[in-house]
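Work Package 3 (structural annotation) set out to generate three-dimensional models for the target panel prioritized at the project kickoff. During this period the team completed the workflow that converts sequence records into C-alpha coordinates, so that structures can be stored uniformly alongside our sequence database. As a representative example, we reproduce one entry of 348 residues exactly as it appears in the project archive.
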Amino acid sequence: MKTLLLSSYLLAAGFLTPVFAAPPAKGTFTSVNGPLPASPADTNLTMFGRGMYPGDDSTYENLRNSGFNTVILSSFYIHANGDVYSGDDHKNPIIHDGQYVGSREWLKYVASLRQASSSVKRIEILLEGRWYNQPPNTYDYIQDWYDSSRTVEGIVTGIGTNSTLYKIIKIMKEDIGVDAICIDDESVYNSESIAKLGELAAHLNLHMTLCPFKKTNYWKDIICRSQPGLIDAIYLQCYDGGRFNMPGVWKDKLETTLPVYPIFLCRGAFSTCNPVHNSKTPAEIKAEMIRFKKDYPEMGGGAIWQMADIKNFVKNNCAVQTPESGTSATFSQYILDLRNGLKDGLSE
Protein backbone atom coordinates (compact mmCIF):
# COMPACT_ATOMS: atom_id res chain seq x y z
CA MET A 1 0.00 0.00 0.00
CA LYS A 2 2.85 2.42 0.82
CA THR A 3 4.38 1.68 -2.59
CA LEU A 4 1.06 2.36 -4.30
CA LEU A 5 0.60 5.65 -2.46
CA LEU A 6 4.15 6.74 -3.23
CA SER A 7 3.70 5.86 -6.91
CA SER A 8 0.44 7.82 -7.01
CA TYR A 9 2.16 10.83 -5.48
CA LEU A 10 5.08 10.68 -7.94
CA LEU A 11 2.73 10.29 -10.89
CA ALA A 12 0.79 13.36 -9.76
CA ALA A 13 4.03 15.30 -9.41
CA GLY A 14 5.06 14.36 -12.94
CA PHE A 15 8.03 12.18 -12.04
CA LEU A 16 6.64 8.80 -13.11
CA THR A 17 4.61 9.56 -16.22
CA PRO A 18 4.26 6.20 -18.00
CA VAL A 19 6.28 5.78 -21.18
CA PHE A 20 4.18 6.31 -24.33
CA ALA A 21 1.28 7.71 -22.28
CA ALA A 22 -0.67 10.60 -23.76
CA PRO A 23 0.89 13.96 -22.86
CA PRO A 24 -0.31 15.10 -19.42
CA ALA A 25 -2.59 18.08 -18.98
CA LYS A 26 -0.42 21.17 -18.88
CA GLY A 27 -0.65 24.32 -16.80
CA THR A 28 1.17 27.58 -17.28
CA PHE A 29 4.79 27.57 -16.18
CA THR A 30 4.91 28.98 -12.65
CA SER A 31 7.52 29.41 -9.95
CA VAL A 32 8.31 26.26 -7.96
CA ASN A 33 11.45 27.16 -6.06
CA GLY A 34 11.85 30.92 -5.88
CA PRO A 35 11.56 33.69 -8.49
CA LEU A 36 11.09 32.85 -12.15
CA PRO A 37 14.23 32.78 -14.31
CA ALA A 38 14.92 35.67 -16.66
CA SER A 39 12.99 35.73 -19.93
CA PRO A 40 14.39 36.89 -23.30
CA ALA A 41 14.54 40.65 -23.75
CA ASP A 42 12.08 42.32 -26.11
CA THR A 43 15.03 42.78 -28.46
CA ASN A 44 16.98 39.63 -27.78
CA LEU A 45 20.60 39.74 -28.97
CA THR A 46 22.32 36.44 -28.19
CA MET A 47 25.93 35.26 -28.19
CA PHE A 48 26.81 31.56 -28.11
CA GLY A 49 29.81 31.06 -25.87
CA ARG A 50 31.94 28.18 -27.17
CA GLY A 51 35.52 29.19 -26.47
CA MET A 52 34.73 30.61 -23.02
CA TYR A 53 35.62 27.75 -20.68
CA PRO A 54 37.33 28.53 -18.44
CA GLY A 55 37.97 31.82 -20.22
CA ASP A 56 39.65 34.97 -18.98
CA ASP A 57 38.81 38.40 -17.59
CA SER A 58 38.99 40.22 -20.92
CA THR A 59 36.57 37.84 -22.67
CA TYR A 60 33.91 38.34 -20.03
CA GLU A 61 34.55 42.06 -19.72
CA ASN A 62 34.00 42.44 -23.46
CA LEU A 63 30.77 40.48 -23.20
CA ARG A 64 29.51 42.65 -20.36
CA ASN A 65 30.11 45.72 -22.52
CA SER A 66 28.94 44.21 -25.80
CA GLY A 67 25.24 45.05 -25.88
CA PHE A 68 24.37 41.35 -26.15
CA ASN A 69 21.71 40.62 -23.52
CA THR A 70 21.66 36.80 -23.66
CA VAL A 71 24.71 34.55 -23.42
CA ILE A 72 24.39 30.84 -24.12
CA LEU A 73 27.25 28.92 -22.52
CA SER A 74 28.22 26.26 -25.02
CA SER A 75 28.76 23.49 -25.71
CA PHE A 76 28.33 20.84 -23.00
CA TYR A 77 28.16 17.08 -23.42
CA ILE A 78 26.83 14.29 -21.20
CA HIS A 79 28.92 11.09 -21.17
CA ALA A 80 27.92 7.50 -20.45
CA ASN A 81 28.90 7.61 -16.77
CA GLY A 82 26.90 10.79 -16.06
CA ASP A 83 29.90 13.12 -16.28
CA VAL A 84 29.48 16.40 -18.16
CA TYR A 85 32.26 17.98 -20.22
CA SER A 86 32.75 21.37 -21.82
CA GLY A 87 33.45 21.27 -25.54
CA ASP A 88 36.48 23.42 -24.67
CA ASP A 89 38.01 20.75 -22.40
CA HIS A 90 37.64 17.10 -23.34
CA LYS A 91 39.89 15.80 -20.54
CA ASN A 92 38.42 17.25 -17.35
CA PRO A 93 34.69 17.05 -16.53
CA ILE A 94 32.77 19.92 -15.01
CA ILE A 95 30.32 17.51 -13.35
CA HIS A 96 31.34 14.18 -11.83
CA ASP A 97 29.40 11.88 -9.52
CA GLY A 98 26.64 14.46 -9.08
CA GLN A 99 29.02 17.24 -8.03
CA TYR A 100 30.48 20.29 -9.74
CA VAL A 101 34.21 19.63 -10.19
CA GLY A 102 35.05 22.13 -12.93
CA SER A 103 36.91 25.43 -12.89
CA ARG A 104 36.01 27.71 -9.98
CA GLU A 105 37.35 30.67 -11.92
CA TRP A 106 34.81 29.94 -14.65
CA LEU A 107 31.96 30.13 -12.14
CA LYS A 108 33.22 33.57 -11.11
CA TYR A 109 33.43 34.68 -14.73
CA VAL A 110 29.88 33.49 -15.44
CA ALA A 111 28.59 35.24 -12.31
CA SER A 112 30.32 38.45 -13.44
CA LEU A 113 28.01 38.57 -16.47
CA ARG A 114 25.24 39.59 -14.05
CA GLN A 115 27.00 42.70 -12.74
CA ALA A 116 24.70 45.71 -12.61
CA SER A 117 26.52 47.47 -15.43
CA SER A 118 26.48 44.41 -17.72
CA SER A 119 24.31 44.28 -20.83
CA VAL A 120 23.79 40.55 -20.18
CA LYS A 121 20.49 39.81 -18.44
CA ARG A 122 19.97 36.14 -19.25
CA ILE A 123 22.31 33.13 -19.25
CA GLU A 124 21.56 29.76 -20.84
CA ILE A 125 23.58 26.56 -21.21
CA LEU A 126 23.65 24.56 -24.43
CA LEU A 127 23.44 20.77 -24.28
CA GLU A 128 24.95 19.62 -27.55
CA GLY A 129 24.63 16.13 -29.00
CA ARG A 130 26.50 14.01 -31.47
CA TRP A 131 26.56 14.66 -35.18
CA TYR A 132 27.91 12.76 -38.17
CA ASN A 133 29.95 9.80 -36.90
CA GLN A 134 30.55 10.91 -33.33
CA PRO A 135 30.08 8.35 -30.55
CA PRO A 136 26.88 8.39 -28.47
CA ASN A 137 26.53 11.26 -26.00
CA THR A 138 24.07 13.75 -24.50
CA TYR A 139 20.75 12.96 -26.20
CA ASP A 140 21.43 9.25 -26.53
CA TYR A 141 21.81 9.15 -22.75
CA ILE A 142 18.84 11.40 -22.03
CA GLN A 143 16.80 8.96 -24.12
CA ASP A 144 18.22 6.00 -22.19
CA TRP A 145 17.90 7.49 -18.72
CA TYR A 146 14.65 9.50 -18.52
CA ASP A 147 12.46 6.42 -17.90
CA SER A 148 12.74 5.26 -14.29
CA SER A 149 11.65 1.73 -15.20
CA ARG A 150 14.89 1.18 -17.09
CA THR A 151 18.07 -0.10 -15.47
CA VAL A 152 21.40 1.41 -16.53
CA GLU A 153 24.55 0.45 -14.67
CA GLY A 154 25.96 3.35 -12.65
CA ILE A 155 23.00 5.63 -13.46
CA VAL A 156 19.91 6.52 -11.44
CA THR A 157 17.28 6.63 -14.15
CA GLY A 158 14.13 8.77 -14.26
CA ILE A 159 13.71 12.47 -13.55
CA GLY A 160 13.12 12.33 -9.80
CA THR A 161 15.26 14.30 -7.36
CA ASN A 162 17.75 11.45 -6.89
CA SER A 163 18.18 10.78 -10.61
CA THR A 164 21.38 11.39 -12.53
CA LEU A 165 19.66 13.80 -14.93
CA TYR A 166 18.15 15.80 -12.08
CA LYS A 167 21.52 16.22 -10.38
CA ILE A 168 23.13 17.39 -13.64
CA ILE A 169 20.48 20.03 -14.33
CA LYS A 170 20.40 21.10 -10.67
CA ILE A 171 24.13 21.89 -10.81
CA MET A 172 23.56 23.94 -13.96
CA LYS A 173 20.87 25.89 -12.11
CA GLU A 174 22.42 26.28 -8.67
CA ASP A 175 26.20 26.16 -9.22
CA ILE A 176 26.52 27.67 -12.69
CA GLY A 177 23.50 29.94 -12.32
CA VAL A 178 21.68 29.63 -15.65
CA ASP A 179 18.14 30.68 -16.53
CA ALA A 180 17.50 28.06 -19.21
CA ILE A 181 18.81 24.90 -20.82
CA CYS A 182 19.11 25.02 -24.60
CA ILE A 183 18.39 21.83 -26.57
CA ASP A 184 20.64 21.20 -29.59
CA ASP A 185 19.70 17.68 -30.62
CA GLU A 186 20.94 16.85 -34.12
CA SER A 187 20.79 13.06 -34.12
CA VAL A 188 18.47 11.27 -31.68
CA TYR A 189 15.16 13.14 -32.06
CA ASN A 190 13.18 11.51 -29.24
CA SER A 191 10.60 14.15 -28.30
CA GLU A 192 9.23 12.31 -25.26
CA SER A 193 12.60 12.24 -23.54
CA ILE A 194 13.13 15.97 -24.16
CA ALA A 195 9.65 16.79 -22.88
CA LYS A 196 10.45 14.85 -19.70
CA LEU A 197 13.72 16.73 -19.36
CA GLY A 198 11.62 19.90 -19.65
CA GLU A 199 9.45 18.73 -16.73
CA LEU A 200 12.62 18.29 -14.73
CA ALA A 201 13.81 21.78 -15.72
CA ALA A 202 10.49 23.30 -14.69
CA HIS A 203 10.76 21.63 -11.29
CA LEU A 204 14.10 23.40 -10.89
CA ASN A 205 12.63 26.71 -12.01
CA LEU A 206 14.39 26.79 -15.37
CA HIS A 207 13.18 27.67 -18.82
CA MET A 208 13.99 25.51 -21.83
CA THR A 209 14.88 26.73 -25.32
CA LEU A 210 15.24 24.91 -28.64
CA CYS A 211 18.05 25.09 -31.20
CA PRO A 212 16.88 23.33 -34.39
CA PHE A 213 18.05 23.23 -37.98
CA LYS A 214 15.74 20.53 -39.42
CA LYS A 215 12.81 18.20 -38.56
CA THR A 216 10.08 20.75 -37.73
CA ASN A 217 7.66 17.99 -36.65
CA TYR A 218 10.05 16.81 -33.95
CA TRP A 219 10.43 20.29 -32.44
CA LYS A 220 6.71 20.95 -32.77
CA ASP A 221 6.00 17.78 -30.78
CA ILE A 222 8.29 18.95 -27.98
CA ILE A 223 6.41 22.26 -27.84
CA CYS A 224 3.05 20.46 -27.78
CA ARG A 225 4.17 18.16 -24.97
CA SER A 226 5.50 21.02 -22.80
CA GLN A 227 3.59 23.21 -20.39
CA PRO A 228 3.01 26.74 -21.71
CA GLY A 229 5.77 29.13 -20.70
CA LEU A 230 8.43 26.49 -20.07
CA ILE A 231 9.89 26.89 -23.57
CA ASP A 232 10.32 30.61 -24.19
CA ALA A 233 12.62 30.89 -27.23
CA ILE A 234 13.66 29.10 -30.40
CA TYR A 235 17.13 29.69 -31.84
CA LEU A 236 17.09 28.65 -35.50
CA GLN A 237 20.35 27.62 -37.17
CA CYS A 238 20.63 29.56 -40.43
CA TYR A 239 24.01 28.23 -41.54
CA ASP A 240 25.58 24.98 -42.73
CA GLY A 241 22.76 22.37 -42.80
CA GLY A 242 20.26 25.12 -41.99
CA ARG A 243 21.52 27.64 -44.55
CA PHE A 244 18.13 27.89 -46.28
CA ASN A 245 16.11 28.25 -43.08
CA MET A 246 13.92 31.31 -42.55
CA PRO A 247 12.53 32.18 -39.07
CA GLY A 248 9.10 33.18 -40.39
CA VAL A 249 8.67 29.92 -42.28
CA TRP A 250 9.67 27.91 -39.20
CA LYS A 251 7.31 29.90 -36.98
CA ASP A 252 4.43 29.07 -39.33
CA LYS A 253 5.33 25.38 -39.56
CA LEU A 254 5.68 25.09 -35.80
CA GLU A 255 2.35 26.90 -35.37
CA THR A 256 3.76 28.66 -32.34
CA THR A 257 3.61 32.06 -30.70
CA LEU A 258 7.16 31.55 -29.40
CA PRO A 259 9.81 33.94 -30.75
CA VAL A 260 12.12 32.47 -33.37
CA TYR A 261 15.61 33.99 -33.55
CA PRO A 262 18.01 33.29 -36.45
CA ILE A 263 21.55 32.15 -35.58
CA PHE A 264 24.35 33.28 -37.88
CA LEU A 265 27.77 31.74 -38.24
CA CYS A 266 30.29 34.60 -38.24
CA ARG A 267 33.48 34.87 -40.27
CA GLY A 268 36.37 33.32 -38.39
CA ALA A 269 34.44 30.05 -38.16
CA PHE A 270 36.55 26.94 -38.72
CA SER A 271 39.62 29.18 -38.23
CA THR A 272 39.28 30.86 -41.60
CA CYS A 273 38.32 34.33 -42.85
CA ASN A 274 36.53 32.77 -45.83
CA PRO A 275 32.75 32.17 -46.15
CA VAL A 276 32.79 28.51 -45.14
CA HIS A 277 29.56 26.76 -44.08
CA ASN A 278 27.59 29.93 -44.94
CA SER A 279 29.47 32.13 -42.46
CA LYS A 280 28.69 35.82 -42.82
CA THR A 281 30.21 39.25 -42.29
CA PRO A 282 28.48 41.81 -40.02
CA ALA A 283 27.17 43.57 -43.15
CA GLU A 284 25.78 40.31 -44.53
CA ILE A 285 24.15 39.54 -41.19
CA LYS A 286 22.41 42.91 -41.27
CA ALA A 287 21.16 42.23 -44.80
CA GLU A 288 19.81 38.82 -43.76
CA MET A 289 18.09 40.29 -40.71
CA ILE A 290 16.37 42.82 -42.97
CA ARG A 291 15.28 40.04 -45.35
CA PHE A 292 14.00 37.83 -42.53
CA LYS A 293 12.09 40.68 -40.90
CA LYS A 294 10.21 41.47 -44.11
CA ASP A 295 8.85 37.93 -44.02
CA TYR A 296 8.43 37.91 -40.22
CA PRO A 297 7.75 41.50 -39.08
CA GLU A 298 7.49 40.65 -35.37
CA MET A 299 10.96 39.07 -35.31
CA GLY A 300 12.66 40.48 -32.23
CA GLY A 301 16.26 39.33 -32.17
CA GLY A 302 19.06 37.21 -33.51
CA ALA A 303 22.12 35.27 -32.41
CA ILE A 304 25.80 34.76 -33.26
CA TRP A 305 27.65 31.45 -33.24
CA GLN A 306 30.22 31.74 -31.54
CA MET A 307 32.88 33.39 -29.30
CA ALA A 308 35.66 31.03 -30.39
CA ASP A 309 35.18 32.14 -33.99
CA ILE A 310 35.32 35.81 -33.02
CA LYS A 311 38.70 35.14 -31.43
CA ASN A 312 39.84 33.28 -34.54
CA PHE A 313 38.83 36.21 -36.76
CA VAL A 314 41.13 38.51 -34.82
CA LYS A 315 43.88 35.91 -34.37
CA ASN A 316 44.00 35.34 -38.14
CA ASN A 317 44.09 39.10 -38.79
CA CYS A 318 41.12 38.74 -41.13
CA ALA A 319 40.55 42.50 -41.41
CA VAL A 320 43.94 42.75 -43.16
CA GLN A 321 44.31 39.35 -44.77
CA THR A 322 40.76 39.22 -46.17
CA PRO A 323 39.23 42.73 -45.98
CA GLU A 324 35.97 41.57 -47.55
CA SER A 325 35.37 39.46 -44.42
CA GLY A 326 35.05 42.59 -42.25
CA THR A 327 37.02 45.51 -40.91
CA SER A 328 37.23 44.65 -37.20
CA ALA A 329 40.84 44.63 -36.00
CA THR A 330 40.15 43.86 -32.33
CA PHE A 331 38.13 41.37 -30.33
CA SER A 332 35.99 44.09 -28.72
CA GLN A 333 35.29 45.79 -32.06
CA TYR A 334 34.25 42.58 -33.79
CA ILE A 335 31.75 41.78 -31.02
CA LEU A 336 30.24 45.26 -31.41
CA ASP A 337 30.13 44.98 -35.21
CA LEU A 338 28.32 41.66 -34.99
CA ARG A 339 25.90 43.07 -32.41
CA ASN A 340 25.22 46.03 -34.70
CA GLY A 341 24.63 43.70 -37.65
CA LEU A 342 21.82 42.04 -35.69
CA LYS A 343 20.40 45.18 -34.12
CA ASP A 344 20.55 47.43 -37.18
CA GLY A 345 18.90 44.73 -39.25
CA LEU A 346 15.91 44.83 -36.91
CA SER A 347 15.53 48.60 -37.11
CA GLU A 348 15.60 49.01 -40.91
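The domain at 37-347 is CATH 3.20.20.80 (TIM Barrel).
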